[in-house]
Amino acid sequence: MAFSWSHPGLPPRPWQVAILDGQPSVFYAGSLDVLSGPHVVIWHQTLGDAHEYLEGGQGFSLGQTSPAIALFRRLETRPVAKKPWAELSEQTKRGYRGRMRSIGVRSEAEMARFHASADPATLHWLRRHGERPADLIVVGGYALYPARGEGVWVTVWEQK
Question: What are the residues whose beta carbons fall under 8 Å from the beta carbon of 21, sequence distance 6 or more?
Fold first, then answer.
């Protein structure tokens, strides 16, 4: 499915995650070639601001190939108050481990990070009470989700 400015939906799979200005961000559209060399990162408050910047102010589009342009969205954790991993019973941990392994979380340290960074819907899924959240992205053992609020979209330009 092509990217839509009015309804961006979830990022395309397989997810492509990059660290931009120290922030984990997921690729939505454009060209990943921007990451292969020097590039410029420009943060936007909203998707509309990013669209206006690309399409209106600069006259470029995401489909253009020179310079390469890409649209990313910052990722965030959504931790909830809960017991730390170390305080969970062994029976509870055993129940969670299979689900975590199915998404690539393998070591005890990664499992603790994942549990600490998970949102309520992900914890619900770990308890086998619901579906896996569609927007869950796992990187380095962290449960990450497309960010909400201000300054969450980023355009990345190839620097020639």
Answer: 41, 43
| E strands, the chain, in order | 17-20, 23-30, 39-44, 69-76, 137-139, 142-146, 153-158
132 within 8 A of 21, measured Cβ to Cβ: no
Separation CA 130–CA 123 (nearest Å): 9
At 1, the pLDDT band (50, 70, 90 cuts) reads low
> Is 156 in contact with 38 (CB distance < 8 Å)?
no
What residues pair up with 137 in beta bridges, in sequence order?
144
**What is the mean predicted confidence (pLDDT) over 113-141?**
94
Here the tokens at position 91 are: 């029976």
Q: Which amino acid is at 83?
A: K
Structure tokens at 125: 């899924």
User: What size, in residues, is the chain?
Assistant: 160
